[in-house]
Amino acid sequence: MGSGHLMRCLTLADALRAAGAACHFITREHPGHLIAHISQRGHRLSVLPGADDNVGEASAGPAHAAWLGATWAEDARQTAEALGAAGTDWLVVDHYAIERRWEQRLAGHCRHLMVIDDLADRAHVCDLLLDQNLGRRPEDYQSLVPSDCKRLIGPGFALLRPEFATWRLRSLADREQRPLRNLLISMGGMDRPNATGMILGSLHPLMRQHDRIQVVMGSTAPWLESVQAQAGEMPCPTEVLVDTPAMAKLMAGCDLAIGAAGSTSWERCCLGVPSVMVILADNQRAVAEHLRNAGAALLIESPQQIASALPACLDQLRAPGSLKQMARAAAAITDGQGTGRVLQALIRLTENPHAQPETT
């Protein structure tokens, strides 16, 4: 799965720790893992063995069952062992391959269970469910969770790091009169199809010396060196930033972001950043279409369409008022306070399991 899943869990864990909780991550050592990021943030960590290549599609279960790297039963057993006998108030799950059977198996190892989901495509047994996506409705989970499950639905609950809310007002104030000169490209930590390289290739004949491009990539991205070499051939200053901790500042300073249609979409919306989104996986499509329909972004359907679609997107955004209008539409989607709202829901349900957090 994309690095956004880990980053939103780290965001929630940091907020919980600031509120006095101790957080313990349990993750599997998949190829290209980002386990070092967890250690660097100072959270307790248990690493499960690497993926079993023989599991494959034979694992009966949800559509993404093969992504688990083990059968659901084996993964549940290993997770229970990692939890140990210590009392766990909340077990928070963020994985498309996990559903009710796994959750039932772990029920005796925690007091409460929270699921972070984006797909609404499988049943859960949980006390709290978070789906931060635009267009999602509480009733989408009506038949998928217990009747007493509390649901936090929509971008108002997006798990964003606090610096995005900090930069929000400054970013919005600066957008009223901006021309289209500074571009930020961020296609996720891995970018396996090399969409970044395709974007730079498409931009090469369109950019001028007074323009600027900043590219954000992860240190484990397979095309990193290729993109770095390509950046050196661009007609305008082009900088490649690796594992940068300053995404909020970078987004606030750009005129347009070209990015994947994943969880970083909510970061761009918080800062009112006009966007061109590229769909890299089918599970990003619904979110991307809702953002396009809301006027918060333009959409490129696949990496293969970048060369033909991106120049047209830039022409459209250079029209008078286009950037300003898109910035306002994006900023209306989320205010960057979602992590605090989720934290308060966890605290309320810990103190009173029958409390009713807001659901939209």
Automatic annotation (TrEMBL):
Domain Glycosyl transferase family 28 C-terminal: 212-330
Binding residues for substrate: 161, 267
InterPro entries: Glyco_trans_28_C, PseG
Active-site residues annotated for this sequence: 5
GO molecular function, one term: hydrolase activity
Keywords: Hydrolase
Name of the molecule in the record: UDP-2,4-diacetamido-2,4,6-trideoxy-beta-L-altropyranose hydrolase
Organism: Pseudomonas panipatensis
Top-level taxonomy: Bacteria, Pseudomonadati, Pseudomonadota, Gammaproteobacteria, Pseudomonadales
